[in-house]
Design a protein that fits this description.
The structure holds 2 protein chains of 2 kinds. By secondary structure, chain A is of the alpha/beta class. Chain A is 40% helix and 19% strand. Chain A has 2 domains: 3-247, 3-Layer(aba) Sandwich (Rossmann fold), CATH 3.40.50; 254-388, 3-Layer(aba) Sandwich (Rossmann fold). By secondary structure, chain B is of the alpha/beta class. Classes of the chains: A alpha/beta, B alpha/beta.
Chain lengths: 393, 191
């Protein structure tokens, strides 16, 4: 029986981690990290999990500890945010390059300077090309569900890659919502026994991690990483199918909302997608064919599937809660544009940057964007391809 | 009441306003409803004005932004009436619940409430001092809101007050809060 609770996104993720009961966790549980690890360390102290908890002196060391424990042959997880993720930077590549299935909750928060720890996708977007799998979550339920599924995906024998589960800082992490917890046993069976692959602690079969590979083989190594990334989508879908059996909730590579017959559409990640759905309903009531696409698996990005889902629309706005400074457009826009590149008669695109540093994304913003899309669908003309919204001039 | 009720809380840091919003959300989980409770985060300082929000709905809550048009406005600290417009965006049929010893008619005038809006007062701080020995008005405020809005039954509310205070406090404090909630329910005045 599922248990209905009213909890914060952080509580939900910590509870998922408790149910998974990993072997080792290394963390630096101080701001900008959220109370996920504080809650988890309470589970450790109270003997509710068997996890070996390592409190490191920095986020760099926390990820290093996770890497060591994972290479040794344990099931490993951690959590971070914002500047903490930034400090892990070089270690993120070592985790993915060493093919270590570490699961990390990333509560998306802004980067300094100026100092701000509110909801913002800059931390996760900055790490998008570091070879990790990324699952993004709209609300506490999805953050919980994605955390559980992330273990299954990361640890899959065809994959063995680290995975991060992203959820919006404050808006989801610190807000209470109704959601459902799955039974402990069902979660335990779903993630299954951890299977070590080439563990360092298997001294009968010694292995090396992170050796020097020069010009002769580095490129082959990288190509192998790219190839394994191409297998992730299938594993994500298989895990979702199994997960539906224990939860009753359906997951895909992305979610479409009223998109099938839509002429105009929004593409938007995480919590702002929920707010946008309510506004899309009100446009539908007025007879306007509006829809929405919310990416879930952001890395690897399902280009083909997303391109096919959007190709028949007339006008699409991609909303980014991060900017790619000096790049052409916001990071989500760049991927959406690339996914539509093969479709010559695809929709007219525009890009709005919203909600940086926790700036509220209100229904009025979605209305403004949808009204603009109505005009673009009629005329085919965009006034400004990229624009900041909800900002002082 | 409507399918969805949106509540805005105005309080000051340290008064337990955020806890009150959480307890209300928990109490409203009953009968299969969807709930949200979230504060507006800023630099957290005792005494600084803060807002918190609730949404309670029979349908899934997808909106993730502050409440702009509350149907219920709970003012935990009446000194805020002088410094901020607590009626901002409130619906035509909004219910105001104000912690004050003053007469509800006087508060109605101060709020410039419309005839279609309801104004309730409760001396929550005095009740809290009587029952708990401290000026923590959240429990009697919850009782008053429960009576003024009928969004949750008193029994459900009391059960949740017991549950959420039971985690941290001694029996004496729990009993005090239960008594304070009941008195808030019983003593709220409309004007």
């Amino acid at each position: 029986m599922a248990k209905v609770v009213a909890v914060t996104g952080n509580e939900a993720v910590a509870y998922a981690l408790k149910q998974v009961n990993p072997d080792v966790s290394a963390a630096y549980p101080i701001t900008p990290a959220t109370d996920i690890m504080q809650r988890f360390t309470s589970y450790v102290s109270n003997g509710q999990v068997k996890t070996e908890m390592v409190l490191a002196e920095s986020e760099h060391s926390a990820m290093s500890g996770c890497i060591g424990a994972s290479a040794a042959g344990g099931r490993v997880m951690t959590a971070t945010s914002s500047q903490g993720m930034a400090l892990m930077w070089e270690e993120l590549f070592i985790a993915s390059g060493s093919r270590l299935p570490i699961v990390m909750a990333l509560v998306n928060r802004a980067l300094s300077a100026p100092l701000n720890i509110h909801g913002d996708h800059s931390d996760g977007m900055g790490a998008r090309d570091c070879g990790w799998i990324q699952l993004w979550s709209e609300n506490a339920q999805e953050a919980y569900d994605n955390t559980i599924q992330a273990f299954r995906i990361a640890e899959h024998m065809d994959i063995r890659l680290p995975a991060m589960v992203c959820l919006d800082g404050f808006i989801i992490s610190h807000s209470i919502e109704r959601m459902e917890y799955i039974d402990d046993d069902a979660v335990k069976n779903f993630v299954g026994e951890f299977k070590a692959l080439n563990p360092l602690l298997d001294i009968e079969h010694p292995v090396s991690y992170g050796p020097l590979i020069l010009t002769d083989y580095y490129m082959e190594y990288r190509k192998a990483h790219a190839e394994v990334m191409s297998k992730v989508s299938k594993v994500v879908l298989d895990a979702a199918k199994e997960f539906e059996k224990i939860s009753g909730r359906k997951y895909g590579l992305f979610e479409t909302y009223r998109l099938d017959d839509a002429e105009i559409g929004l593409v938007i990640l995480n919590s702002a997608a929920g707010t946008s759905k309510d506004v899309i309903d009100s446009f539908r009531e007025k007879g306007i064919k509006a829809g929405l696409l919310k990416p879930r698996l952001f890395r690897p990005f399902p280009y083909e599937e997303i391109g096919n889902a959007l190709k028949n629309l007339k006008a699409v706005c991609v909303l980014d809660r991060a900017d790619a400074f000096g790049g052409s457009y916001g990071p989500l826009f760049i991927d959406i544009a690339a996914s539509l590149y093969p479709h010559k008669n695809g929709p007219v695109l525009m890009n709005k940057i919203y909600g940086l540093g926790g700036r509220d994304y209100l229904p009025g913003h979605a209305e403004l964007v949808l009204n603009e899309l109505v005009d673009i669908a009629k005329t085919g003309k965009v006034k400004m391809i990229k624009e900041y919204i909800g900002v002082r001039e | 009441m409507a399918d969805m009720i949106e509540i805005r809380w105005h309080g000051r840091g340290g008064q337990g306003t955020v806890t009150a919003a959480k307890v209300l959300a928990d109490a409203c989980l009953s009968s299969g409803r969807h709930v949200q409770a979230f504060p507006e985060y800023g630099p957290e300082r005792a005494g600084a004005p803060l807002r918190a929000y609730n949404r309670i709905s029979s349908k899934e809550l997808r909106m993730h932004c502050p409440v702009l048009n509350p149907q219920v406005v709970s003012i935990v600290d009446a000194t805020l009436l002088d410094s901020i417009n607590v009626a901002d965006g409130a619906t035509k049929d909004a219910i105001f619940v104000v912690n004050t010893s003053k007469d509800p008619k006087e508060i109605r005038a101060k709020l410039k409430a419309e005839a279609s809006q309801k104004v309730f007062t409760i001396d929550a701080t005095k009740i809290a001092i009587d029952c708990i020995g401290r000026a923590l008005p959240n429990a009697p405020m919850l009782g008053a809101i429960c009576k003024a809005t009928s969004i949750v039954t008193l029994d459900n509310l009391l059960e949740d007050v017991r549950k959420s205070f039971g985690k941290k406090f001694a029996q004496k404090i729990i009993d005090g809060n239960l008594e304070a909630t009941k008195r808030g329910y019983g003593e709220v005045k409309e004007g």
